[in-house]
Amino acid sequence: MPVLFYYLGLKFFFYSNDHEPIHVHVSNGDGEARFRIDPIQMIENHGLKTRELKYAEAAIEENKEVIVERWNEYFNK
Fold first, then answer.
1. Which of 9, 13, 22, 51 would disulfide-bridge 37, Cβ 3.0–4.6 Å?
2. Which one, of 1, 15, 13, 2, lies nearest residue 56 by Cα?
3. Taking the CA of residue 41 as centre, how many other CA atoms within 13 Å lie in the half-sphere pointing to its CB?
4. Residues in CB range of 64: below 8 A, 6 or more apart
5. Whole-number pLDDT of residue 5
6. Where are the domains of the chain?
């Protein structure tokens, strides 16, 4: 499970067996959500609070290029 970065207690990562479209998982001790990258859109949420989802979306927006680059590197795209 490649971890991309941490931000305000949230971990941003993808699973080694993930699939397209490019997306990122976000978790903390209370739950996990999944966001599509282009356009940025929450796909599902299991336990993250509204504030955490807003932080996650902002961090994804700011790091969108890094996430796509790391995805392509990891999955040999």
1. 22
2. 13
3. 5
4. 37, 38, 40
5. 97
6. 3-74
**Phi-psi category of 73—alpha, beta or left, where left has phi over 0 and alpha has psi -120 to 50?**
alpha
Please tell me the predicted confidence (pLDDT) of residue 44: 98
Q: How far apart are CA 6 and CA 72, in angstroms?
A: 20
Measured CA to CA, the distance from residue 39 to residue 70 in angstroms comes to: 17
Residue 30: Cβ within 10 Å count: 11
Q: How far apart are CA 71 and CA 65, in angstroms?
A: 10
